[in-house]
Design goal:
The structure holds three protein chains of three kinds. By secondary structure, chain A is an alpha+beta fold. In chain A, about 35% of the residues lie in helices and about 15% in strands. Chain A has two domains: about 80 residues, Ubiquitin-like (UB roll); about 80 residues, DNA polymerase, domain 1 (Orthogonal Bundle), CATH 1.10.150. In chain A, strands 2-1-5-3-4 form a five-stranded mixed sheet, covered by helices on one side. In chain A, a hairpin with a 2-residue loop joins strand 1 and strand 2. Chain B folds into three domains: about 190 residues, Aldehyde Oxidoreductase, domain 3; about 400 residues, Aldehyde oxidase/xanthine dehydrogenase, molybdopterin binding domain (Aldehyde Oxidoreductase, domain 4); about 230 residues, Aldehyde Oxidoreductase, domain 4 (2-Layer Sandwich). Chain B is globular, with a radius of gyration of 28 Å. Chain C has eight helices and two strands, in the order H-H-H-E-E-H-H-H-H-H. In chain C, strand 1 and strand 2 form a beta hairpin. Chain C starts with a helix and ends in a 6-residue tail after the last helix. The chains are: A alpha+beta, B alpha+beta, C mainly alpha. Chains in contact: A-B, A-C, B-C. At the A-B interface, helix 2, helix 3, helix 4 and helix 5 of A face helix 2, helix 4 and helix 21 of B. Chain C: InterPro entries: Multihaem_cyt_sf (IPR036280).
Chain lengths: ~170, ~900, ~210
């Protein structure tokens, strides 16, 4: 057993004793009861288990939690689906997902939400041209499997958040 | 004889196990039902979106996979874990587990095997007949058959053991025996010979003569003998088969005026690949003798019955007095969670680990190994087309289904596939045989399309080939041969709903993909081929015995609550319920609770007999009991969500309006009971939450609700509805007047009182012989696609796609659109990507995951070039029709037809991969 | 880390192979390369019977080719911008692409999923420097002879000298992963040390190609 401490959605968690071969997904779901992060394939194929990792340089990435030991996240700051809305106020992306009817069963939604959010934050730093937008969204979301929706509305939902505030995300 | 789509084990036969228990929630932890009542009273949510929208974007606990013991009020806090070990081999004697090879920290506390199940007296429900666990010394019945349930105190022990079993050979096998053989699950022959003139009675049809099966099987192959043999057991078969053989002879005969094609087509096994693997949580409290379960299935009522049957005669020291099952939101179903044996193993895990909440959860490898699959089909099809008129003269087909190791829904899938084999066409002579075989493969069962995806793919590619041979435009061919309104399907009955082939075909013909096909083909880039394909499907919805439970209530503030037995698996049923109810009582419910079977006790329903095979005399006799209904609750499957799933709640809402809100409106308007306007309640209508009536002031729902409560009017209603290709209808007497509606049971609440059931005064159930109908309900969808193939690689890109469908009134247009988009994606996966080989190389070996099993991703689809058009309903009051399956079907043959158009090559097996395309281009 | 069954099996296989090699050596003095099982590498000494130095040099490379053409190497030396995975060399799922630095596109970087080390409970391979070989170093679908010409060409080998190649194949820890790929993947033949010995022998013998 080894001690693990990290920050989840702005709150310090740990130190907790964990098995070196306990996956981050099981740590979140079995130890912490944070089941907003899903388990889909256990092999980084569907990415329904992806969370956001906020790096020290101010950038963020998503990481599937099913293929990484929990200890890899020691001292890291992560965000999960439970942490997007603040005091019940949905983020623009959450709102867009709901209003677009982006998902159906919703099991892949946490992964798409985290991936879309990281994309939005990246585009705020590194804007893209309008004509590259659909391709950029595809590159971001294509790792995520959705079996219900056919993906159309997920892509529209992300795109429409960007197009609603073009100067923030797109080059002039 | 109609093969049942459900194994109907009656509540009454459940041997003293009570299935209805009211949940007791503590103050700190909300119960599952409270968490899953959405969007939730006082919860802020956008005006637009699904009722479960906010919960799903905020990570709310909704799915069975989300719950642990600590989330359940009154449960012990610690969750324990179970591992279901399955056999990767079905050709050698199973000799037990090598538990000594497990790391010491992964030693299970308990191991449950076939012997233990036998010892306590557990019974396998008929639907799942076959050993729940492979006994030691026996060859497993099928690949993936469970051999043991391992129970662990801690998650860590379970997790280490799970990996050890996955990566090691911890199952011991002995001598090679070869696979176990078993009888076919069922065989049917559907033959119809139409009368000589249009409209004349059929000469022979399944509707007139009943459904027939051959009386003999070949002793060597085990296959049914379809030819006509003198059969003392089955003169009915001899008669039908004689007509069938005559049709075959006609197709074999050389006739220069008729084009005949004789083709074989094979489809693969695939996995529903719903994203939430099957999971359950259960706790057996030996002190209270109560089994509590949390599961997610498409068939909650059936699951509860199956568990009750399993435990109905177990030894007294193991037998629960009550089973309380909470049914959760489902992370995808697609049929694969309709009648799954998984809940049985969840129940056993808890029963053998008394006092400890225990969780059984598939990982993805296990879900591939053990989850229900789509049937692989082998089909031979023969079609005759009159060269001059372009009309289909005759059609014959033989289907062989790989049913895998357990019967499950194999017979039913065979029947639905066979009766769907002529798709949208009117064909005067049809002869289709079908047999579902037992094999050692993973069990096949229900999956979106339910046999018709396979048979209509074979049909629509065959039709395309006929069009090529006759140089006939494929849309014109379909127009000439489409089943006309009122004409008979292959079982001999007409559809009872609109099927709008001419409009669908007009849309396909004028849409850009089809119109521009020649120009686009000619304009192909160097190194690329362009092809266009089109296909159509008319697909049944409903099973011929579907029912619905629903309750609607309104509080004095005008807030609406809905309860339903329908399951939310992504299909948007909660939102559809809210929208349909709102058309009757004005407000979108802020409390919608689905997948409930334990809140309708006040209806005091009883049932008996099999609704699919009951005789008219038995039905008439049973119907004298005002509590009797043909069936109590259905699975959410067969595309019945909109049509059936919302029916009871919608009818309950109408009762609340008529006997609660309308009298309140009259009182607020000061319209006297004898005023003629008092009877004109059907003329009132809602604009948002305001009730409008010509010549009288608008009334807000809040005021109406308060008045209804104040007057002791009807403020809540619960109803049951039953459909056998037509709704049961009944009349109920209320003090305010009689009420006739398409329901067969009703209870009402007045003011804030409790529900009181009302005896029906009269009831008309649909006739028992409607059970000979294949389907009377169908929706239609047509798809066109333009594809681009890279010559060098065989890579295929879908450049543009268009689907046009009709489904009556759309309750939630965005959900219909989403289903069509999702159906397109699943069709693309089936046609081009997904493939599970049979037997040892297939998913039963436990090594399959999404690396090998490739489903469609966004980049496989024309996300910005997929055009979906939904025809407006024929009339404002056209009921909703099922559409979740039909939207997937034409996608597959349209792609194959486009591949032919591009390459000049026809593929007769799925999936068609880039390597195969490259192969034919070389 | 738990010792799982598959590790034990691999260990067993390796042991068997060693015994077999010793057995051959005791019979013939030296095993010939053709006696070496597919999952082992013949030592340079076993090529001593080849008199022609160029042929011997080429033979070293042919033996080394068993490593270079193994899925452990070709999967991430792909012919396209998309790597492959598994012993069946199927296209990588989820779909990932080379990107400008060989570490993926901006959104789906190799390191999003591949950690600093293998995570065996999930069968997940990992290394701190997980990335694709540059496009000009594509080996997928090539013959050993083609790879040989390619690997000597600084324009197509990352600007490496022959000496650098000894280090790359013999000491690089990402290359070394090929012999420790975790459960469910066949390791590259032999050991990294044995491969290094072959590269040294090949370079020292004039780096001839088969």
């Amino acid at each position: 057993m080894t001690m693990l401490s990290l920050t989840i959605n702005g709150r310090a968690v740990g130190p907790l004793d964990v098995r070196p071969d306990l996956s981050m997904n099981d740590f979140l779901r079995e130890r912490l009861g944070m089941t907003g992060t899903k388990f889909g394939c256990g092999a980084a194929q569907c990415l329904s288990c992806a969370v956001i990792v906020d790096l020290d340089d101010g950038t963020s990435v998503t990481k599937p939690t099913c293929v990484a030991p929990a200890l890899d996240f020691n001292k890291q700051k992560i965000r999960t689906v439970e942490g997007h809305a603040v005091n019940g106020v949905l983020t623009p992306l959450q709102l867009s997902f709901v209003e677009h009817f982006a998902f159906q069963c919703g099991y892949c939604t946490p992964g798409f939400l985290n991936e879309g959010q990281v994309l939005l934050e990246r585009l705020e730093r590194e804007k893209v041209a309008r004509e590259d937008l659909e391709r950029t969204i595809m590159e971001a979301l294509d790792g995520h499997i959705c079996r219900c929706s056919g993906y159309v509305k997920y892509h529209q939902a992300v795109r429409d958040v960007i197009l609603a505030d073009p100067s923030r995300f797109l080059t002039a | 004889m109609r093969p049942s789509r459900r194994d109907f084990l009656k509540l009454a036969s459940v041997c003293g196990i009570s299935l209805s228990v009211s949940p007791v929630a503590s103050a700190e932890v909300p119960d599952v039902a409270a968490r899953e009542t959405l969007p939730g009273r006082g919860v802020s949510h956008p005006a637009l979106g699904r009722v479960d929208g906010v919960a799903k974007v905020t990570g709310g606990k909704l799915y069975a996979a989300d719950f642990r013991a600590a989330d359940l009020p009154g449960w012990p806090a610690t969750t324990h874990h179970a591992l279901l070990v399955r056999a990767p081999d079905a050709t050698h004697l199973y000799e037990g587990l090598d538990l000594a090879a497990l790391p010491p920290e992964a030693t299970p506390t308990l191991v449950v095997t076939a012997e233990d199940i036998k010892r306590i007296g557990a019974r396998v429900p008929e639907f799942y007949a076959g050993d729940l666990f492979c006994p030691v010394g026996t060859t497993p019945l099928y690949l993936g058959q469970p051999v043991a349930l391992l129970l662990f105190e801690t998650f860590d022990a379970y997790d280490v053991a799970r990996v050890a079993f996955r990566d090691g050979n911890l199952l011991k096998f002995g001598k090679e025996t070869g696979p176990r053989t078993g009888a076919n699950y069922g065989a049917f022959r559907f033959t119809r010979v139409a009368g000589a003139e249009p409209g004349a009675p059929d000469i022979y049809s399944p509707l007139q003569e009943g459904w027939i099966s051959p009386g003999f099987v070949d002793s060597g192959s085990g296959r049914p003998i379809w030819r006509v043999l003198p059969d003392e057991k089955g003169p009915d078969y001899v008669k039908g088969a004689a007509y069938g053989e005559a049709i075959r002879a006609e197709l074999e005969a050389v006739n220069p005026s008729v084009l005949t094609l004789d083709r074989s087509f094979a489809t693969q096994s695939v996995d529903p690949m719903f994203l939430e693997p099957e999971t359950g949580l259960a706790w057996y409290d030996p002190a209270a003798k109560k089994l509590d379960m949390v599961i997610g299935v498409q068939s909650p009522f059936e699951a509860a019955e199956a568990v009750a049957h399993l435990l109905g005669e177990v030894q007294a020291d193991h037998k629960p007095g009550a089973v309380n099952t909470r049914f959760c939101y489902v992370g995808g179903g697609f049929g694969g969670r309709d009648h799954t044996p998984f809940p049985l193993y969840v129940a056993l895990a808890a029963l053998f680990f008394p006092g400890r909440p225990v969780r059984l959860a598939h990982d993805r490898f296990q879900q591939f190994q053990g989850g229900v699959k789509r049937h692989a089909f082998k089909m031979r099809s023969q079609i005759g087309v009159d060269r001059k008129s372009g009309l289909i003269t005759a059609f014959a087909a033989d289907h062989v289904l790989d049913g895998g190791g357990l019967a499950n829904y194999s017979v039913s899938v065979a029947v639905v596939g066979a009766t769907g084999a002529i798709g949208m066409y009117a064909i005067p002579k049809v002869d289709v045989t079908t047999v579902a075989e037992h094999t050692r493969g993973v069990t096949a069962g229900s999956m979106r399309g339910y046999g018709t995806l396979q048979t209509m793919t074979a049909l629509e590619t065959l039709v395309d080939e006929a069009c090529t041979a006759l140089a006939l435009d494929p849309i014109e061919f379909r127009r000439r041969n489409a089943l006309k309104v009122g004409a008979r399907t292959m079982t001999g009955n007409p559809y009872s709903v609109s099927v709008r082939a001419p409009e669908i075909l007009d849309k396909l013909q004028t849409q850009a993909i089809w119109k521009d096909r020649a120009r686009e083909k000619a304009a192909a880039r160097s190194g690329f081929l362009i092809g266009t394909g089109v296909a159509c499907a008319a697909k049944d919805y409903g099973t011929g015995a579907d029912c619905s439970l629903g309750a609607v209530s309104i509080d004095p503030q005008g807030r609406v609550s809905i309860n339903s037995d329908a399951v939310e698996m992504g299909n948007g049923i909660g939102t559809a319920l809210a929208n349909r109810v709102a058309t009757h009582i004005g407000a979108i419910a802020d409390e919608v609770t689905v997948a409930q079977i334990d809140v309708f006790d006040e209806l005091e329903l009883v049932t008996s007999g099999d609704p699919y095979s009951i005789s008219q005399a038995d039905q008439d006799q049973a119907a004298r009991d005002p509590h009797w209904v043909p069936a109590i609750s259905s699975a959410t499957s067969a595309s019945i969500g909109a049509h059936v799933g919302t029916q009871a709640a919608a009818e309950a809402a109408r009762v609340v309006f008529r006997f609660g809100l309308w009298p309140a409106a009259l009182a607020l308007w000061g319209v006297a009971p004898r005023d003629p306007r008092a009877e004109r309640w059907t003329e009132a209508y809602w604009q948002g939450e305001t009730l409008l009536f010509s010549g009288l002031p608008p009334l807000p729902l809040k005021a109406l609700a308060a008045k209804a409560h104040e007057q002791g009017g009807v403020t809540g209603a619960m109803a049951h509805a039953f459909s056998r290709w037509a709704w049961a209808e009944a009349t109920f007497a209320l003090p305010e007047g009689e009420w006739s509606a398409e329901i067969d049971a009703l209870a009402v609440r007045r003011g804030s009182g409790g529900y009181q059931r009302l005896d029906r005064k009269a009831v008309a159930f649909p006739p028992a012989d409607y059970n000979r109908i294949g389907t009377a309900f169908a929706s239609m969808c047509g798809t066109s696609v333009r594809i681009e193939i890279e010559r060098a690689t065989g890579n295929l890109r879908i450049a543009k796609a268009y689907s046009v469908l009709e489904c009556g009134k759309t309750l939630v247009p965005e959900v219909v659109l989403g289903q069509a988009q999702g159906g397109f994606a699943m069709g693309v996966g089936y046609a081009l990507l997904e493939d599970l080989p049979p037997f040892e190389e297939g998913p039963g070996n436990g090594t399959w995951n999404l690396g090998q099993y490739v489903v469609a991703r966004g980049s496989d689809l024309p996300l910005h070039d997929l055009d979906i058009e939904v025809l407006p309903p024929l009339a404002a009051n056209e009921p909703p029709k099922g559409m979740a399956e039909v939207v997937m079907i034409p996608v597959v043959p349209a792609l194959l037809n486009a591949i032919f158009d591009a390459t000049g090559h026809r593929f007769y097996a799925l999936p068609v991969t880039p390597a195969m395309i490259k192969g034919v281009l070389a | 880390m738990t010792m799982n069954r598959r590790h034990l099996l691999f260990l067993g296989t390796v042991l068997t192979v060693s015994v077999l090699t010793v057995g051959i050596a005791s019979r013939n003095g030296l095993a010939t390369p053709t006696d070496t099982p597919a999952n082992a590498l013949a030592p340079p000494e076993s090529f001593a019977t080849i008199a022609d130095p160029a042929a011997r040099s080429a033979a070293y490379f042919t033996e080394l080719g068993k490593v270079l053409t193994s899925p452990r190497c070709t999967n991430c030396h792909p012919a396209t911008d998309r790597p492959r995975q598994g012993d069946a060399r199927r296209l990588h799922q989820p779909p990932v692409y080379r990107g400008v630095d060989g570490m993926g596109l901006a959104s789906l970087r190799c390191s999003n999923c591949h950690g600093g080390a293998n995570f065996d409970p999930a069968g997940m391979p990992g290394h701190p420097a997980w990335h694709l070989a540059p496009a000009e170093m594509a080996w997928e679908g090539r013959t050993v002879a083609q790879i040989c010409e390619q690997i000597k060409d600084p324009a197509r080998n990352g600007g490496r000298s022959l000496q650098d190649l000894i280090e790359h194949i013999g000491d690089d820890t990402l290359v070394g992963w090929a012999w420790h790929p975790g459960p469910g993947r066949m390791p590259a033949p032999g050991t990294q040390a044995e491969a290094k010995a072959l590269v040294i022998a090949w370079v020292e013998s004039g780096a001839a190609c088969p």
